[in-house]
Amino acid sequence: MTVSDTRPPEAPDRPATPAAASRPGWQGAVRRWLRSTSTGSSTVSVLMTGVLLVVLFGAGSVRYENFGYPQVALNLLVDNAYLIVLAVGMTFVILTGGIDLSSGAVVALGTVMAASLLQAGWPAPLVIAAVLATGSLLGWLMGLAIHGLQLQPFIVTLAGMFLARGICFAISGPSIPIQDDLFTAVAINVVELPGGTFLSYGAVLALVVVALAAYVLHRTRFGRTVYAIGGSESSAALMGLAVGRTKVGVYVISGFCSALGGLLFSVYILSGWSLHGIGLELDAIAAVVIGGTLLVGGRGLVVGSLLGVLVLGTIKALIDFDGGLNSWWTKITIGVLLLVFVVLQRLTSRRAGTAS
Fold first, then answer.
1. In the 3-class helix/strand/coil scheme, how is 122-149 assigned residue by residue?
2. Can you give the pTM of this predicted structure?
3. CATH number for position 169
4. 331: domain range?
5. 25 in a domain, yes or no?
6. pLDDT, tens only, 207-256
7. In a domain, 224, yes or no
């Protein structure tokens, strides 16, 4: 008898069990990525916002005869260009776990500065540079106070809001019309699109700002540091990341975007007034949260903020098309949506913490 004769017979191949047959392939890999990574979770939130936007616009197209026209959709960008830019700056701040309550007041300051300087005879390019520099300076000062003095962003930016609004009234109380040729040309001329549709130059600029912000957040060291600070500021510091410069930088970006939003708003209405932009910072925060950015920071996409602004614009358009609803229903609807998204964020965060 040989050794081979005493070797036990090999077990036959086991048939595939139902569990083995149902092992997830690429679909499961995508599902695990969506659940386990911050980018994946942010993508889910953005998709939810996108679905909500499609549902709202589809409902309006069914309910109202002319709502489904392409120009109505493009008007969401035209009429909310300044808010899109404002939401981009707010996204940077919220991603670090901060908040900026001064944005609306800085928008008003931008309109008042532009109108008053143009009225005083300043050339338009110099006026634009002065407004943007002022917004960036205010953001830099608030960022220094928040990081250097370890003060709460809520308190610092609240003080910045009162400061900016007070400067507005110090410059001029009544509304100042804008009659500059450059501002008027930008307000009147449009970018022609196929099908007889168009976009304003302000809307095009807002989309460029969104694209640049997305590149900075996802393709630069600064952007990765923004996400790291929002995830855990102490861990980011231990990794040797430039926490201080980044925290100050996001408030500079927010101030710059607020000033740019003020310029777009002044072009949109061709006037400057100290009472412009009241509550606009709350609209920007709502758009960012509805767009999927966590209020505690560390997770979110700037594209989601764009979709959040479009959702708010669609709600306003639906109420305008109806004609029989009070404009306050816009605030009521936005408040309900904001509460729903905050609750969903909380539930998602708890589930992620339990899974980890």
1. CCHHHHHHHHHHHHHHHHHHHHHHHHHC
2. 0.86
3. 1.10.3470
4. 44-355
5. no
6. 999 999 999 999 999 999 999 999 999 999 999 999 999 999 999 999 99
7. yes
